[in-house]
Design brief:
The structure is a single chain. By secondary structure, the chain is of the alpha/beta class. It has 2 domains: 8-42, no CATH class; 88-206, Uracil-DNA Glycosylase, subunit E (3-Layer(aba) Sandwich). The protein has 9 helices and 5 strands. The chain has helices spanning 10-16, 28-32, 41-44, 48-53, 58-75, 102-114, 134-140, 181-184, 189-206; strands at 88-92, 122-126, 145-149, 168-170, 173-178. Strand 4 and strand 5 form a beta hairpin. The longest helix has 18 residues, at 58-75. The termini are far apart. The model is unreliable at 11-16, 21-34 and 43-75 (pLDDT under 50).
């Protein structure tokens, strides 16, 4: 058998001549070479184009639908932290905060835990962010009890006034006025005394 009669399999020829293959017009490989499968990716490159173009349109629609829900939430009334499950409203005055600084919120959370409650049981309203009146509170939150931290009862247009650390029932609601949270979170003898008075009032209010 002469060398001209030896035929190599296609996969061996491909490995031997990766960079290119030159054959004479009359050789057997010149007839077999076109049998090499044509590269198929070219027609596929046309298909991804519309698939990437189509999802781009829905994105603005989602952002537009989110805006009315935010606006409607603001129209409902006062912003508050919590779910108000126990109809217990807590009023604070904290300029520069959405609701409370972290240390005061942590302290308030511990107080609620001692009363067998959590943030979800109350509604915390920061009177520094928007005007608050007793009429608006009753219409929106329907509180059974209101705790005022560092606020005079008349500041929310209550028609009555009463001293701190005294449970005051009035018009189907119980009120309690105490010093501000920034005084209660301090590490001092005066602060410990204020905490003791607050705890005694809360024990009576929630029967704990």
């Amino acid at each position: 058998m002469s060398l001209n009669d030896i035929r190599l399999p296609d996969f061996i020829i491909g490995e031997l001549y990766k960079d290119g293959l030159l054959v004479s017009p009359g050789s057997p490989q010149s007839v077999r070479q076109p049998a090499k499968p044509p590269e198929a990716p070219q027609p596929q490159t046309v298909q991804p184009a519309p698939s990437f173009a189509e999802p781009a349109a829905p994105a603005p629609l989602q952002s537009q639908t989110a805006q009315p829900s935010t606006a409607s939430a603001e129209r409902r009334g006062l912003k508050f932290l919590g779910n108000n499950r126990r109809a217990f409203t807590i009023l604070v005055h904290s300029p520069g905060s959405a609701f409370l600084p972290d240390d005061q919120l942590a302290f308030l959370t511990k107080i609620l835990e001692a009363c067998r409650m959590n943030i979800g049981d109350v509604a915390i309203v920061n009177t520094a962010t928007a005007p608050v009146t007793i009429t608006g509170l009753k219409q929106q939150l329907r509180p059974a009890a209101i705790l005022l931290f560092g606020l005079e009862p008349t500041s929310i247009r209550l028609p009555i006034n009463f001293p701190a650390f005294r449970l005051q029932p009035y018009d189907d609601c119980t009120y309690l006025s105490v010093p501000s949270l920034d005084l209660l979170v301090q590490q001092s003898e005066e602060s410990r005394l204020l905490k003791s008075k607050l705890w005694l009032c809360l024990k009576t209010l929630f029967n704990v």
